[in-house]
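Q: Entry one of two.
A:
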Amino acid sequence: MGKILSKINGPRDIQKLSMDELDILAEEIRELIINTVSKTGGHLAPSLGTVELTLALFRVFSPPTDKIIWDVGHQSYPHKIITGRKKRFGTLRQLGGISGFPKIKESPLDTFGTGHSSTSISAALGISSGKSLKNDDGMVIAVIGDGSMTGGEAFEGLNQTGHLNKNIIVILNDNEMSINPNVGALSSFFSRKLSSKPVVNLKREIEAILRSVPGIGDNIVKVVKKAEDAIKGFMTPGMLFESMNFQYYGPIDGHRIDRLVETLSNVKEIDARILVHIMTKKG
């Protein structure tokens, strides 16, 4: 077991590491997954693609207060290793061992039992609604990928979430098994900067000033929003999600921990429904 991984016993340990140490940890986790799955069998490639994302999620958010839902579940091996199951990881998919999918009975950090695709967004909406009723703190994050966005339930979840104005964060892990958008450096830079707190606050202040113009304020705001949508449509592939009342940011390189942490830290502060689009390589 790797030098850094041997010191990781839970998500809080991730927050103590430097970016360089996180990069080393990512490689140690990949090595453990490859060595284990070569013996036990399992979903190797999807989990290898989510190592940096998993580390970034635990760096920015605070489970179990914040709820992370994996869809489909075979992206979750790095999650299992970090959440106290690294010593049992060799029993993966074995009789009496740990499951190949998130399992509520296995860990309190397995928020939702996942065995089928396209369920995470609907589950996130349900958990977010329950939190609102109980006045519970914490955010709800759904990670959907590996083709799951092609399922109808995923779009039903997006549509209903937008309709109910429930604030969740959806992370679309796009390994080109579902959609294949523009992934240029300009698009990534544009989205990361648009999600920053100063830019979000500036946009709100400008909108308030424009709306205050007597008689024509609302019309000016509509024109400005159309111009912004046109720029986003040119720079990013996210207008589909914007139409369902989600703020779209991406595509982001899903193997750059620093960029993932920057983007997730920014969107965490935005009071809205968020979809972050990341690009990863399966395997």
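Q: Entry two of two.
A:
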Amino acid sequence: MSFLIPVFAPLPFLGLEVFVGIIQSLVFVMLVLVFTVGATAHANH
């Protein structure tokens, strides 16, 4: 059974990497949306 430790030990870290990747992609999408709305907004003078 001890030969399975190297297989299952990194799994929590891989899950954390996926979580961090999702957070980074959400932040990037929000930044792009804010820039796009700001760049395409018409100024009402």
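A: Comment on entry two: The two ends are 73 Å apart (CA to CA). The chain has a mean pLDDT of 91.
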